[in-house]
Amino acid sequence: QVTLRESGPALVKPTQTLTLTCTFSGFSLSSSGMCVSWIRQPPGKALEWLALIDWDDDKYYRASLKTRLNISRDTSKNQVVLTMTNMDPADTATYYCARIMASAGSCYLGYNWFDPWGQGTLVTVSS
Amino acid sequence: SYVLTQPPSVSVAPGKTARITCGGNNIGSKSVHWYQQKPGQAPVLVIYLNSDRPSGIPERLSGSNSGNTATLTISRVEAGDEADYYCQVWDSSSDYVFGTGTKVTVL
């Protein structure tokens, strides 16, 4: 059974750096075709893809947030970490991690989907 | 950037059929996936690759994709189908894109 769980601070101040951890089980991020992605959802709004890391340690970021995001992995701990710098109240959202199984040799292609998802963690940005 | 447009809400009586559309430029050339999100919960994949169902998803849920519109159809709607539904594609210029979301209300 594949599970993912997000953890991190519930409250951060504007301009601070957010660090979120996704701890997963049931698969190995070292296995070919496996990827972990981060997605967020502001309260009452739609989902927004942020970043992903693949089995080869390749990393991909949302273009508009690329300068603020960093994704990394610790395969020995089955963890993926997302950092987002210079947090703003507009970044208030529930942050999810999810698995992608590459369906055509890459997680950065047109055939992939997110399954399963973690429960999500709400991050509020406020002074 | 690539945009996916969904109706904000769809209302349907129990036992009837709900159709949720997802509009995008030439979306028929892309693979569309659908997620169900109940209040306070994480999204759950219900349709992938336009029309395939993951194990455990009832046959009442089906998907299609052609031209500029993809559609999620829920037949014989039940109270438990009440949720938000999101479509998703990957676009070479916009990366992973989600639709605006549709709230399904069972009357």
Question: What can you see in these coordinates?
Answer:
The complex is a heterodimer of chains A (about 130) and B (about 110). Chain A has strands at about 5, 10, 20-25, 35-40, 50-55, 60, 70-75, 80-85, 95-100, 120-125. Chain A is mainly beta and about 130 residues long. The model of chain A has no long low-confidence stretch (mean pLDDT about 95). Chain B contains no helices and nine strands. In chain B, strand 7 and strand 8 form a beta hairpin. The mean pLDDT of chain B is about 95. At the A-B interface, loops of A face strand 7 and strand 8 of B.
Terminal-residue CA separation of chain A: 40 Å
**What is the strand content of chain A?**
over 45%
Characterize the biggest β-sheet of chain B.
Answer: 6 strands, mixed
Overall average pLDDT of chain A: 96
Helix content of chain B: under 10%
Average predicted local confidence, pLDDT of chain B? 97
Radius of gyration of chain A: 14 Å
SSE pattern of chain B: EEEEEEEEE
The best one-word shape of chain A is globular
Going by helix content, strand content and strand pairing, the class of chain B is mainly beta
Tally of DSSP helical segments of chain B: 0
First and last CA, distance of chain B: 36 Å
Order of helices and strands of chain A, N to C?
EEEEEEEEEE
The description of the largest β-sheet of chain A is:
6 strands, mixed
Number of strands of chain A: 10
Q: What is shown here, in short?
A:
Chain A has strands spanning 3-7, 11-12, 18-25, 34-41, 48-54, 59-61, 69-74, 79-84, 93-101, 121-125.
Please outline the helices and strands:
The complex is a heterodimer of chains A (127) and B (107).
Chain A: E1 3-7, E2 11-12, E3 18-25, E4 34-41, E5 48-54, E6 59-61, E7 69-74, E8 79-84, E9 93-101, E10 121-125
Parallel strand pairs in A: 2-10
Antiparallel strand pairs in A: 1-3, 3-8, 4-5, 4-9, 5-6, 7-8, 9-10
Chain B: E1 9-12, E2 18-23, E3 33-37, E4 44-47, E5 61-66, E6 69-74, E7 83-91, E8 95-98, E9 102-106
Parallel strand pairs in B: 1-9
Antiparallel strand pairs in B: 2-6, 3-4, 3-7, 5-6, 7-8, 7-9
